[in-house]
Design a protein that fits this description.
By secondary structure, the protein is an alpha+beta fold. It is built from 7 helices and 24 strands. The strands form 9 sheets. A 5-stranded antiparallel sheet has the order 5-1-7-8-9, with no helix packed on it. The protein has a 5-stranded antiparallel sheet with strand order 13-12-11-16-15. A two-stranded antiparallel sheet has the order 2-6. The longest helix has 11 residues. The chain is elongated, with a radius of gyration of 26 Å. The relative contact order is 0.09.
Length: about 325
C-alpha cells in the first residue's frame, strides 16, 4: 500500500464476491473516507494501491467487501464515472464502519398556498439507494423534485459528526412562492418506519427583541449562586445607551467550539448530553484566550479570575423562562413558526 493512500484511509482493502466481465484501469476514489482502490481478482482480498485493476461492472452495484481497522464490511461497489480509459469506483457498506446509507420517505406535510398539480398532504415518494419510488397512481412535482434533489443524498448518508447540520434539517419548501408546499424528509429504519432523529437544542438569541430588562441576569445568578447578583451571571446584557441597543451575550454551544481549542490548560470541555461548555476552575489559568476566541463574547471572568460560561442549567436554562419578550430561547430554529 502506498503511503499516500494509507494516510487517506488508514488501511482499506477490497474483495469482490462475484465474477467480473473484464479488466479496466482506474484511480483511487474516495467516498466517506473510504478509498476504493485495489487489485481485485475474483474472491480475493488484496491491499489497496494507488492504481489498480477493477472489474468492468455492467450492473448498478457489485457485491463486494472492504476491510478497515474495524474489520470486514459487506457492501456494494459502484461505477461512479468513466473518464477516458479510467474507471472511478465507490464502495458503500451495508453495515457499520465504512459508509451506511439510509432509505428516505419524502412526505407532503403541508400546503400553505395553492398547488395546481395538485399535490395533497400525505402524498409521498421513497428514495432507496439510487432509486426514486412513487406509489402506484401517484406523481411527483418536477419543480419540487428539483429543489429537493440536493438534500436527498445528504439525508441518505449516515455520519457521526457533531457539527453536522443535516440531521436537523427535515423540511424543504417547493420553489413556487404561490404554492408553498412543505415537504418533510423522513429517515427510515430497517422496518421502513420513520426514525426520530435526535435534535439537540441550543441557546438562541434574537437581539432585536431584547428590552434590556436584565431579568435573565437575575434569574441566572439566583439559580447558580443563590442570590440576585447580575455581575455574577453567566449571561450578560451588553448595553449601548446612546444607540438604545441591548444585546444578550451568552454561550451558543458551537459544534466545534473555538474556546475549547484555544485553552492551553485543557480547562474547558463539553457536557456529553447537553453539549454545554464546562469549566474546570482548578485547571483554568485565567489567560483569557478562550474569551479572545469566542465569537459571541460570551465568557465572563469573576473576581476569582476564573472563566464563567453558561452551562445551560443542566438542560433547562432558567434565564429563558424569565425572558418575557422571547429574546433568548432554548431550542432549534424552525421549531416554532
Amino acid at each position: 500500500m502506498t503511503k499516500r493512500v494509507q494516510r487517506a484511509n488508514e488501511g482499506v482493502s477490497l474483495a469482490l464476491l462475484g465474477m467480473w466481465n473484464g479488466p479496466g484501469r482506474c484511480r483511487t476514489s474516495r467516498v466517506g473516507g473510504v478509498v476504493a482502490a485495489g487489485s481485485l481478482p475474483p474472491l480475493a482480498r488484496k491491499q489497496a494501491s494507488d492504481h489498480a485493476i477493477f472489474p468492468v461492472l455492467d450492473k448498478p452495484g457489485w457485491e463486494a467487501q472492504a476491510f478497515s481497522q474495524s474489520g470486514w464490511h459487506r457492501g456494494y461497489l459502484y461505477l461512479s464515472s468513466l473518464i477516458q480509459d479510467k474507471r472511478f469506483f465507490c464502495f458503500y457498506s451495508q453495515g457499520e464502519g465504512v459508509t451506511e446509507m439510509y432509505n428516505l420517505r419524502v412526505v407532503v406535510e403541508e400546503i400553505r398556498g395553492f398547488c395546481d398539480l395538485p399535490m395533497v398532504p400525505g402524498d409521498y415518494f421513497e428514495v432507496q439507494g439510487g432509486k426514486i419510488i412513487v406509489p402506484p397512481g401517484k406523481h411527483i412535482c418536477l419543480w419540487a423534485l428539483q429543489s429537493l434533489m440536493p438534500m436527498l443524498p445528504l439525508k441518505q448518508r449516515k455520519i457521526d459528526e457533531e457539527n453536522d447540520w443535516v440531521p436537523y434539517t427535515k423540511r424543504i419548501c417547493c420553489p413556487d412562492p404561490n404554492g408553498m408546499v412543505i415537504y418533510r424528509i423522513d429517515v427510515l429504519d430497517e422496518e421502513n418506519k420513520a426514525v426520530e432523529e435526535e435534535v439537540r437544542p441550543r441557546m438562541l438569541v434574537d437581539a432585536d427583541k431584547c428590552s434590556g430588562c436584565r431579568a435573565c441576569e437575575l434569574a441566572c445568578s439566583l439559580a447558580n449562586f443563590g442570590q440576585f447578583a447580575p455581575d455574577k451571571a453567566l449571561i450578560q446584557i451588553a448595553k449601548q445607551e446612546t444607540a438604545g441597543i441591548d444585546a444578550p451575550l451568552v454561550c451558543r454551544q458551537c459544534g466545534n467550539a473555538p474556546c475549547i481549542a484555544a485553552c492551553p490548560a485543557g480547562a474547558l470541555s463539553k457536557e456529553p448530553v447537553t453539549k454545554a461548555v464546562l469549566v474546570d476552575e482548578e485547571r483554568c489559568i485565567s489567560c483569557r484566550l478562550c474569551l479572545k476566541a469566542c465569537p459571541f463574547d460570551a465568557i465572563f471572568f469573576g473576581k476569582n479570575g476564573k472563566a464563567g460560561i453558561c452551562h445551560l442549567c443542566h438542560g433547562n436554562p432558567s434565564c429563558t423562562r424569565k425572558c418575557s419578550v422571547g429574546a433568548i430561547t432554548f431550542g432549534r430554529k424552525g421549531d416554532v413558526r
